[in-house]
């Protein structure tokens, strides 16, 4: 039995890797193109490009592994059936249920891994990407160019004579509103970054305010102006706190149900796929692509409907129907013959 288990597993992993690696690379290329579009908004170095891509790896794995698994199972059993290798195993007294259990263990492990990936890792990586992007956008907004008019910092228009890193010289900022006009001048200034909240610190300067036909003049030793307008506080405590919002948010609840259902696809679809993939090559046609396409489309459309409706009843009903249909088809088409 050990040799049979190893034989089935080796065939499966060869098939799985031959499908998973190309699919992973194709989806990765799509995300690389998506990342490249960010360069129109922010400057990204090669190391930052790698960092951003690492944030997308969990979601790429989540989408590619279930469909790779389903395609691998169908492809493997069709091939073993066409080569009469399964017939040889059945003639030796090996039950079809034993062979399927070998793959069922893998399907269970994969579903557990996908659940962990989608529930714990994906939300965190998404938050890290959003935080990274917002930080880079904030840096781009405060990238003030010397001797150039029309630049803004918060509500203020700003002009500087020179700049070295974050140190500014001969700073002039101006703001006009319904309440009046303000202008502040300082020989030196500095841009500060406090976890994404940027501020402008002016030293030993002078300010003028004009309102109600009155001009006021002040001298200041230091003044700090914060850019609250463009500040976005992106925080993520932990996955459990994030998903607990599903009680009050249909969007988050729909995503949670979608992730769980998609994670369960390997184990839910296994017996259905096998029921149409183990064939007698003399009397039955090889419908490999039809089986893979049909099963994948049905399950992913169901997952999308569950996500859009955020309906627990539809979620539970879909799982129950899948389980009942799996055992019915397997017993009728496979177990009663092999």
TrEMBL record:
Gene Ontology CC annotation, any one: ATP-binding cassette (ABC) transporter complex
Record's keyword terms, sorted: Cell membrane, Membrane, Transmembrane, Transmembrane helix
InterPro entries for this protein: LptG/LptF_permease (IPR005495)
One annotated GO biological process: lipopolysaccharide transport
Keyword hit for Transmembrane: yes
Cellular compartments annotated: Cell membrane
Cell membrane in keyword set: yes
TM helices/strands, residue ranges: 12-32, 52-78, 98-122, 256-276, 288-307, 313-330
Pfam families: LptF_LptG
Record membrane topology: Multi-pass membrane protein
Protein name (Swiss-Prot/TrEMBL): Predicted permease YjgP/YjgQ family
Species for this entry: hydrothermal vent metagenome
